[in-house]
Design brief:
Elements lengths: L6 H13 L3 H11 L4 H6 L36
Amino acid sequence: MRLLMSAEDNLNRIMDLQKTLDAKQQKYLNQYLNNAPRWVLEAVKLVHKDKNTIFIEENGPADYVYILVDGVVRAIDYR
């Protein structure tokens, strides 16, 4: 069982995603990934977050980098 997908597997998944995007979204995603080193491409995970999902919390660990491809992010200050 492989824990990390290969860069080629991830590239195939990214290319499949790009086929579903309009030209503006494709350009946006390409800006981030065109010159990405191999280790970044191997670490990429495509995820879908349901509406109103909290995925970043103040003072929480910053373990991931998110690239929003479609949708809107809303920030709420609970202070």
